[in-house]
Structure formats: structure tokens, C-alpha cells
Write a structure and sequence with these properties.
Strand content: 15-25%
Helix content: 25-40%
CATH class of the largest domain: Alpha Beta
Number of helices: 15
CATH architecture of the largest domain: Alpha-Beta Barrel
Shape: globular
Oligomer: single chain
CATH superfamily of the largest domain: Aldolase class I
Distance between the termini: 18 Å
Number of strands: 17
């Protein structure tokens, strides 16, 4: 089915850094310990990988020629392991290869156990203007149970050092429903995060993902009722402290929503470079949407830099896939989406998902009027059931 794009969605860039100090037992991301990396120094590894990323981006640029990149997100793995000079080279080359908005949000994920104040300052000088820090908990016992390499003192010091280095846009990642966690401990984690007066908080439930250590050796987790109570009590605490709940797991102070993630959730376009990175690009000339992904293992990615083999695969999305993926993302937004966003970001008429919308309304999972479609409180609680309607 031919699409009908009159405008193209906003464009972002995702950069994947695949190495970490130690694989967490709950992590299902494409990450590999540094001990599994090439038998070379950290500096040499990062130099090689940075050059491969630049080559990767050079191959991608023709697909978005002339379009402005609104945000960059460097994820992993643990990107804060990266050598600052390699990051400086990467950011400068990105700015040379694409049309980068002067107001672009440039985020880096950071692990508290891998960064000191000097390194934070060097990241800031390189152009990073937003940090996303994987705190997960301020309780040492809970951190040990989920296999984190840092302790609570390191977490607190890392936040303070980042602020002293000049970062005023910081997200803190927190998990709840951790092994053996109580309601009081879940609330205490949020209270400690609030004390730092950061701009953003991601608060999400620990889930046991396939192909992880926790999936094969599951810890004892709080039950569903307690987990839901943790979620709602923590939500209220955040609301009482002027945090806007704008996505299922995301909370922000006024004007501090993560622009990069909002673009994902609103079915925007994004380039993906790096080992295992995925991208989604709308093509106005061919009136289609293409997904492309890169080879997953870092060694293979490095060996094939500049070759067609770097591209792990690509596919053109069907109209059914477009409708489902759009709803899979936007249904996570607390305030939903303007009705005209669907045709603008998919190239399809709203009647393409009308059957699913009507069913979701009948089940009291969404509210739908001429101007806006948004999940109900019931829809947010039973999000999987809402999303499955459009599958």
C-alpha cells in the first residue's frame, strides 16, 4: 500500500556503544563486557569503534539528506566508559556529516561506577548536554541483588560531580519491584532521587527478560499487587514534587521531557549507528518507511566497517506494521496524541486503525474524540492488552 507523506516526521540519531564493565543479570540489551573486547587498550578500542561509527553514519547520510537531526542519544552498554577524546571526535564528525539543530538535545547514558568529575567535564566540553544515569537504587543491598557494579555512595557522588561539571539536565534511572524490596524502600529511593533536584526521573519495574541470567535463575520478586502499589505510591510522591508524568515510566519537571524518547514514542524517524543499532526512516520519494539494523556483535561490526555487510538487514514496513508500531509507541504517552499525528507520521489515514480504536473505546482502554486519542487509567494499567488490539 502506497503511503501519502505530506511532511516528514522529526529526525533523531541513536548511537550504540556496546561495551560495559559487567553484564547485569537483568539486562537484555546488546552489551558485552570489556574483557570480551579486542586484545588492545581501551583507547585503541574506542578509536577503532569511533571510526567505524563515522563510516556507518557516512553510509546512512544519503537516506536523510538535507533533514535536520533534532536529538542524539548515545546508549549502550555503558557509553561513559568511552574515552573523552574519542567522544569529541565522534560528536564533531556527526556535526560535520548531518544538519544538526543548534538546539539539539545530546544525551549520554552513564554508569555511576565509571565516571569521575574530570571525565564528566570532558563529556560536557565535547557537547553532551544531557546525562541519563543508571542509579537503579540508593540501597546497597538492593544494588547487590541486581548485580550493579556501584554502591549508593558512588551513585550520590556521581550525581553531585555531574552537576559540578555543568550538567543541569540529568535523568536518574530508578527501578522498583526489586528482589525483596519493600514499599518503604521503593519510596525511599524516590525521595533520595528528589533530593538532588534533577530534571527528569525514569521509574520502571524490574522485569525478567528472556536470555538473561535472571530469566534462567529468577530471583523472588514482589507480587503483582505490591508492585502496582509501589508504582502508584511513587507516582503520587513524584506528582507532589512537581514532576509531570508524561510517559508510562517517565517523569519530568516543566519543559524537561526527553525530546529524543518523545520522538520514538510519537513514531518519529531515527538513524541508528553502532553494533546492533536499529533505525526507522520515512522516504517521501518512495512513499514508504524503511527499518534498517546493523550487525550485532562488536567484532563483526568493526570487521565490516564500510562494507555492505555492516548492515544486518532492512525491511519495508507494511501498512499493518506501521499502524501497530505507531500505536505500540504512542499508547505509552499519558496524554495520548493529537489525532492528526497519525497521518502526519505514518502517511496513512486514521481510518486505517479505526477498527482497533473503536474496540479500545468499547473496552474503556482509550478516549477518542475529534482532536485527541489518549489511554484511560485502565488502558495504562493494562497497556499490553491495549497494544495487542492493534497487532
Amino acid at each position: 500500500m502506497m503511503l501519502n507523506f505530506t511532511t516528514l516526521p522529526p529526525l533523531s540519531l541513536y548511537i550504540h556503544y556496546p561495551w560495559c564493565a559487567r553484564k547485569c543479570p537483568y539486562c537484555d540489551f546488546n552489551s558485552h563486557t570489556v574483557s570480551d573486547a579486542l586484545s588492545i587498550s581501551d583507547r585503541e578500542r574506542d578509536q577503532q569503534y569511533t571510526q567505524a561509527l563515522i563510516t556507518d553514519l557516512q553510509q546512512e547520510v544519503p537516506t536523510v539528506w538535507g533533514r535536520t537531526v533534532q536529538s542524539i542519544f548515545i546508549g549502550g552498554g555503558t557509553p561513559s566508559l568511552m574515552q573523552p577524546e574519542a567522544l569529541q571526535q565522534l560528536i564533531s564528525q556527526v556535526a560535520a556529516l548531518v544538519k544538526l539543530s543548534p538546539m539539539a538535545e545530546i544525551t549520554m547514558e552513564a554508569n555511576p561506577g565509571t565516571v569521575d568529575q574530570v571525565k564528566f567535564a570532558e563529556f560536557h566540553d565535547a557537547g553532551i548536554n544531557r546525562l541519563s544515569m543508571g542509579i537503579q537504587s540508593f540501597d546497597d543491598h538492593l544494588l547487590q541483588r541486581i548485580g550493579r557494579i556501584h554502591d549508593s555512595q558512588q551513585a550520590r557522588k556521581a550525581i553531585e560531580r555531574a552537576q559540578l561539571a555543568g550538567f543541569d539536565n540529568i535523568n536518574l534511572d530508578l527501578m522498583y519491584a526489586l528482589p525483596g524490596q519493600t514499599m518503604a524502600e521503593a519510596l525511599n529511593d524516590v525521595q533520595q532521587a528528589l533530593a538532588f533536584e534533577t530534571a527528569h526521573l525514569s521509574h520502571y519495574q524490574l522485569t525478567l527478560e528472556p536470555n538473561t541470567l535472571f530469566a534462567s535463575q529468577p530471583p523472588e520478586l514482589p507480587g503483582d499487587d505490591l508492585s502496582y502499589e509501589m508504582q502508584t505510591e511513587c507516582q503520587q510522591l513524584l506528582a507532589d514534587n512537581s514532576f509531570q508524568h508524561y510517559e508510562v515510566s517517565a517523569y519530568a519537571r516543566a519543559g524537561k521531557q526527553c525530546q529524543h524518547n518523545l520522538n520514538y514514542w510519537q513514531f518519529g524517524d531515527y538513524l541508528g549507528i553502532g553494533a546492533g543499532a536499529h533505525g526507522k526512516i520515512s522516504d517521501a520519494s518512495k512513499q514508504c518507511i524503511i527499518r534498517r539494523w546493523k550487525v550485532k556483535h562488536p567484532q563483526s561490526y568493526l570487521e565490516n566497517a564500510g562494507k555492505s555487510f555492516m548492515i544486518g538487514g532492512e525491511e519495508q514496513l507494511s501498512s499493518h506494521d506501521i499502524g501497530f508500531e505507531f500505536m505500540l509507541n504512542v499508547s505509552r504517552l499519558i496524554n495520548g496524541f493529537a489525532t492528526d499525528l497519525f497521518p502526519r507520521h505514518t502517511g496513512l489515514a486514521i481510518n486505517h486503525i479505526e477498527k482497533g480504536l473503536k474496540k479500545a473505546v468499547d473496552l474503556e482502554l482509550i478516549e477518542w474524540d475529534l482532536h485527541r486519542i489518549k489511554p484511560t487509567e485502565r488502558g495504562l494499567r493494562y497497556l499490553n492488552e491495549l497494544q495487542a488490539i492493534f497487532l
